[in-house]
Amino acid sequence: MYTRIILPLLFRFDAETIHHTVTSILKFALAIPGLSALCRRLYVLEDKRLERTVFGLTFPNPVGMAAGFDKNAELVSELSDLGFGFVEIGTVTPRPQPGNPRPRLFRLKADRGLINRMGFNNKGAGPAAERLRQFSANRGGRRVIVGGNIGKNKDTPNEQALNDYLLGFRALFDAVDYFVVNVSSPNTPGLRDLQEREPLTNLLTALQTENRQRPAPKPILLKIAPDLTDGQLDDIIAIVAETGIAGVIATNTTISRDNLVTDAAQVGQIGAGGVSGQPLRERSTAVIRYLHERSGGTFPIIGVGGIASAEDAREKLDAGASLVQVYTSFIYEGPALAKRINRGLL
């Protein structure tokens, strides 16, 4: 029903506008007494065999919602009700920012993908942390694993980026279970330069120093681009070992336009942005496999990119991922996606 009736209706509207409309309806509906419990009965698959303990945290199942869908920590409860084992909020920046001019989110229907150049549009780390604290106080003992994906503001020069990441880390520390350092979005000018070995090592070392001063340090992960060379991936492996961070998320969106089915003229008209969804599946799996094999499996990997089925998730897990995340496929496949993947994994 979703793919045959609802999805064509949704695709009549601008991608970003319908995202906000649908999520607002979801929040309103699940606030009605009894509907949250009904939703959980429909979409949540509870089975001990699905549990995963990774970097010291126990996840009820291995399927999470990737960063980008819930930028402002407004949908954690609702996504949990749809069966996700964890939710990663953000990317958040220390100060609110509007992001890039609209339109900035485009569908590649023939590829079951998206191009986005959102530009870290968000309401700021402080408000996100406050919403998470309110959620934690009101969830009635229900456990939801939450990751905090942090980035720098667009107008912050790279030389001062560390301060932005520290501000985001401090704001979210008591509100999230793990952190993700995002230096791999293609939509903030110069951000990917921070993936180079020296600046990245300095950034992660400083965050780890701050982290280790806390009574209970939080796992810190690094989100990387799929466009890195093997030599750069070798650097990532060395940096993880040197800084002692908890793991890697592979991968963010790609700037490549290779192997797209969508007409090249249409893609060219869309312009800049990162490609996500099915076109990313093979490359993200290759990156996961490379990191896992070259590192000897010494750190956990969260696999993301083109996961639309249990078979896709299994491909990532077999390549070396400990957990997986979805985003674009949730739009194309609908609200039962997490349950279908988990059932297939069982």
Lay out the secondary structure.
Layout: H1 2-10, H2 15-30, H3 35-43, E1 52-54, E2 57-59, E3 63-65, H4 76-81, E4 86-92, E5 105-108, E6 113-116, H5 125-138, E7 145-150, H6 161-172, E8 178-182, H7 197-212, E9 220-224, H8 230-243, E10 247-250, H9 264-270, E11 274-277, H10 281-295, E12 301-304, H11 310-319, E13 323-326, H12 328-333, H13 337-345
Parallel strand pairs: 3-4, 3-13, 4-7, 7-8, 8-9, 9-10, 10-12, 12-13
Antiparallel strand pairs: 1-2, 5-6, 6-11
Describe the model.
The protein has 13 helices and 13 strands. Helix 4 links the parallel strand 3 and strand 4. The chain has an 8-stranded parallel barrel with strand order 3-4-7-8-9-10-12-13, surrounded by 5 helices. It has a 3-stranded antiparallel β-sheet with strand order 5-6-11. A two-stranded antiparallel sheet has the order 1-2. It is of the alpha/beta class and 346 residues long. It has one domain: TIM Barrel, CATH 3.20.20. Helix 7 runs parallel beside helix 8 and helix 11 crosses helix 13. The two termini are 24 Å apart. It is globular. The longest helix is centred in the first third of the chain and has 16 residues. Monomer. It is an enzyme of class 1 (oxidoreductase).
Domains counted in the coordinates: how many? 1
Low-confidence stretches: none
Radius of gyration: 19 Å
Report the biggest beta sheet as strand number plus sense, adding barrel if it closes.
8 strands, parallel, barrel
Inertia-based shape: globular
Structural class: alpha/beta
Query: What is the CATH architecture descriptor?
Result: Alpha-Beta Barrel
Mean pLDDT across every amino acid position: 96
How many strands? 13
Separation of termini?
Answer: 24 Å
Subcellular location: Cell membrane; Membrane
Family: Belongs to the dihydroorotate dehydrogenase family. Type 2 subfamily.
Pathway: Pyrimidine metabolism; UMP biosynthesis via de novo pathway; orotate from (S)-dihydroorotate (quinone route): step 1/1
Binding site for substrate: 71, 116-120, 182, 187, 252-253
